[in-house]
């Protein structure tokens, strides 16, 4: 069973690496950020509520987020495992997750602030399938068009400098302390995510989780 969590600051590469590693184990990649953005696009009640928090770089309230993840993890495709990306990011979320299921590995992606700023400054993402690109680090074959599904590539609303600053501060305050929670369980592996070649980071993650 591979019940994994990828934790790391904004721009650490959680989404980029999870997208590759999910295929290696044939398990789903569950990104709460992508789920919220999908709900915002569809203008569902959850999306309307989430947008108020996300655009300014704030967290969506725990209660809503926990409910969303609990429902997602109860589906059949999670039986052999999953990669949680962006959840948990507060202590109440980690405690709630503990009651839902057992976590077998936590991959902590470590990245420096200058690398974060470079990555978020150039990130573009597909509106349709959520595939992640970067204007210079990982450009699409055709500018503005997704290589996978042909969808439109856009810059996230929370990738503005003020929102990035807020998100990084919240990460330090609320999410970084979770490492203690998981270190005590003995399930954490540390990965240096500063390497400019994503496939090298993926190799390192694989070596540590296999
Ligand atoms: P979320 O979507 O999870 O955003 P995040 O945590 O801020 O993380 P990012 O998606 O910004 O970074 P990433 O680590 O996935 O990096 P990526 O792979 O894209 O959450 C968004 C918002 O939703 C939150 O702020 C909050 O409001 C809400 N939310 C979500 N979950 C929540 C929760 N549990 N509770 C409450 N609220 C919640 O990579 C970044 C860029 O770098 C890309 O362009 C990529 O191409 C490039 N790149 C990646 N790796 C490399 C490399 N090795 N070399 C060169 N370039 C690279
Ligand atoms: Mg992401």
Structural write-up:
The structure is a single chain. This protein has 210 residues and is an alpha/beta fold. It has one domain (2-112, 162-209): 3-Layer(aba) Sandwich (Rossmann fold), CATH 3.40.50. The protein is built from nine helices and eight strands. The protein has a five-stranded parallel beta sheet, sandwiched between helices. Strands 6-5-7 form a three-stranded antiparallel beta sheet. Helix 1 packs across helix 9. The longest helix has 15 residues, at 161-175. The chain is globular and about 45 Å long. The N and C termini lie close together (11 Å). The mean pLDDT is 96. The structure holds BIS(adenosine)-5'-pentaphosphate and magnesium ion. The site of BIS(adenosine)-5'-pentaphosphate (AP5) has 36 residues, from helix 1, helix 2, helix 3, strand 6 and helix 9.
* Mean pLDDT reading: 96
Number of strands: 8
Return the structural class: alpha/beta
Could you please say which CATH topology applies here?
A: Rossmann fold
- Low-pLDDT stretches: none
Give the full name of the CATH homologous superfamily. Answer: P-loop containing nucleotide triphosphate hydrolases
Rg over CA atoms, rounded to whole Å, is 16 Å
What proportion of the residues form beta strands (DSSP E)?
A: 15-25%
Give helix % range: 40-55%
Quaternary: single chain
What topology, given as strand order, has the largest sheet?
2-3-1-4-8
- Compute the number of structural domains: 1
